[in-house]
Amino acid sequence: AKLTEQQTFETDTEALTRSLFQTGSGMIMGTVAYMSPEQARGLAVDVRTDIWSLGIVLYEMVAGQPPFSGATPSDMLVSILEREPPPVSRKSGEVPAELDRILRKALKKDREERYQVFKEMALDMKSLRQELKNEAALEHAAMVATSDEKQIAIGTGQGALATDETLSAPTEEVSGAHPTSAEYLFSKIKRHRRSASVVLATLVIALGSIIFWYKLSSQRQAAAPMSAKLFERTRVTKLTTNGNASGAAISPDGRYVAYGMLEGDKTSLWVRQVATAGNVQIVKPAEVRYLGLTFSPDGDYVYYVVLDNTNNVTTLYKVPTLGQGAAATRILEDIDGPVSFFPDGKQITFLRDDPNHQESTLMIANADGSGEQKFATRKYPDHFGWAGPVSPAWSPDGRLVACSVLTTDAQGSYNNVIVINKADQTQKQLSTHKWNLVGSIAWLSDGSGIMMNAKEQDESFMQVWLVSYPGGEARKITGDFGDYYSITLTADSRALVSQLNQTLSNIWIAPQGDSSHAAQVTSGAGRYFDLCWTPDGKILYASDASGSADIWEMQADGEGQKQLTVNAGRNYAPVASPDGRYIVFHSNRAGGTWNIWRMDRDGSNPKQLTNESSESYFPEISPDGQWVVYHHERQVWKVPIDGGARVQLTDKSSLRPAISPDGKLIACWQSDEKPKPTWRIAIIPFEGGSFLKLFDVPQGAVNWDTTVRWTPDGRALTYRGLKLSKAHGNIWKQPLDGGRPVQLTNFSDQIFDFAWSRDGKLLISQGVYTSDVMMMSDVKQ
User: Fold this and answer.
1) What CATH architecture does domain 229-501 belong to?
2) Single pTM value for the model
3) Is the per-residue pLDDT at 126 higher than 90?
C-alpha cells in the first residue's frame, strides 16, 4: 500500500507541476516575469537559469504574488536586474526562515551564488520538509502529554494549578529565545493550523516540483546537442611544466597523452599516463621538429609527423603507444601536418602544399600510406590550413570532412572552416564568422559541432573555440594571454588536449653588438617585437601584451613609453622614415587583409599605401625616404611612400626584404622551387632583377619568419636563429664577401627580434618562450 501511495504522490505532484509550467497562448518559458538576470542581459543560459525560474514559481506559491513586478516589460526587467525581492516571510508570517533562505539562494542575481544544480536545492527542501515533519510529531506528542497531565490535575485541585504553572513557565522561557524554523512554525499550530498545513503542503508540492523539473531538465539536456553545453564549465590541468613541449594529442579513451619534447637541437616523443602522471619516452631524441601527433582510433598507435632539420623533408611515422624502445614504422612523406583518421581507422586524410603549382590539396590514403589520392584542391591565394600544422577532421559518421581554409573575398582574406561532403564533394562554409587564423579541428562525438583553435581579426592570441554544426554558431572557450596550438578530443568529447605557447620578453641594448656588455632597458613581463631605431635615437616596437597588437615608442633608456596606434586592428613591423616624419607598418585595420600603411610620427593621419586582396607584410624604407619595399604573395615589391603604382622586384619566392645602408641592394629570404623548399639569403639590386648572391644557412634552424638586418657598415648580413639550441637561438653574421656565418651574440634566452642603430648599437628583444601541454575537461552541470 505504501509503495502505491508513493507512486500516486509522485504522479500527482508531477501533474501539478506540469500545470504550473504549462505553456499556453501568449505565454512561454521565457516570458519576462520568469526571466533570469542573465536572460535579461542576453547572455548564455544554463541549468541555473531554470533554477531561477523555479524559484520564481515557488515564491509565488508561498507569498501569493511574484517577487518582481512592473507595469511594463521594461519595468519588470529593471526590477529583475536591480531590485531584491522582499523576504517571503513578510508576505506570509508562517514561513520558516529556512525556506526564506532557500528562496533567496534560488533567486541570487549572480548565478555563481545561486544553486548550481537542482540536486542541491532538492536536498535543502527535503531537509526542511523532514525537519518540519519531525517537529510536528514532537509538538503533537507534547500536546497529548499536556492534555493527559491536565486530566490528572483536575482530580487533585491545587496540584492541577501547580502542574499548569510548572508547564507554562518553561514555555515562556523558550518563546523568548531564538526558535528554529520548525519551532517557530509549530508554536503557531494551535492558532493557525490551516495556514501551517498549507505551508507544509506547499513544501511537499515544491519538492515534487523540483524532482519533476530536475527530471525534465535532465531529459532536455540529454536530448540537447553537445555543442549547446559542452565546455561551458571546465577544469584545466597542466600536464607538462618544463616549457619545452612540441605538439600533443590525447588518446580516444583519455588514458594517455602523447607529446613531443624539445631537448636542445633534438626532439623526442613521450607518452604520459593521465591517471598516474607517469611519463615514458617512446621515440628517442632526433634532429627533427614535430608537426603533428594523432592516436589511432583504437588508441594502440601514435602517428607522428616530423620535419628533418637536415634536409627539410617531412615524414609520417607510427609507433606503438606503449612501445618503449619499439621501432617506428615509416608511413609516407611530403605531409604538412597531422593526419586525421576515418571513423573505421582504415584511411587517413592530410594536407599537402605544392608551391610549384600554386595549390593546396586535401589528400586521402590508406592507413599504411598506400593508395594516395587527391580529395579536394584549392588554388592560391586560397589555401587549406594557414595557422601552422593543420589537421582536417572526419565527422563521426564518416560523411563529412572539415578543414580550416584561407579564403579571399571583396573585403580581403580571412580564415574559416569548410565542410566537404564525401559523397559528392560539395563544399559548404561552416560559419559566417571571419577569423584571422584557424588551426586544427576535431569533431564532437555526436556530430553537432567542432572544436578548433582560432584567432580573431583584432586579437593576438589563438584560443579554443566551439562551432556548432550545421548552424555555425561560434563560442570562444578560452581567453588566455597565450596561443593554443593543436586540438584533439577524447572519444566522448569530454576532454581535450592542446599545446599552450606563451612569450615573455624585454629589451636590451648591446654596444657595438657586444652581448657581454648588453644592458636591459625594460623590466617586467612584456612582449616586445618588430624593433626599430628612429633617426633621433628612440625605439619603435610592436607589442600585443594587452591582447591587441599596437605600435609603441619609447626612449632608449626604456622610459616614456607611448602608444601610437589605438583601436585600429592589429599593427606590426614599424619602421621610421630617414627624416623622422613618418612611420610605415603593416596592419589589418581595413577589413582583415594585411596591407602596408603610413602614419605621422605621432600616430596621426594614417594612409593606406597598398590595397591588395591578399597579404602584404614587413615594410622597409629606402635611405632617400622615397620608396617602401615589402613582400607580397612571396615576392618583393616596392611602392612610393606617398602612394602610387607598385613595382614588382622579384618573380621568385622571396620574403622579408631588407635595404642596404647605401640603398643599392636588397637582401631577402629566398627559397627554391622544390616541394620542401630550402631557405637561403639572397641579394638583389634595388631596382629589382636576378639574384646577385645567395648564402646558405643552417636548415631547420631558421625560416622565412626571422629577421634579416644589414650591419651599419653594409659589409655583412645578420639574422636570428630558432631556439633549437643556445647557438641557434642567437644572432648570426654572414659576411657579404662570403665565408661561413659566425655566431655574433651569446644569450641563453630566446631572441625574438633585433635592430642596428646607425652608430652600431644592437637593440635586442629577448626572453622566454614556453610551450606546455594542457588538458581541459568538461565539468557537467
Assistant:
1) 6 Propeller (2.120)
2) 0.67
3) no
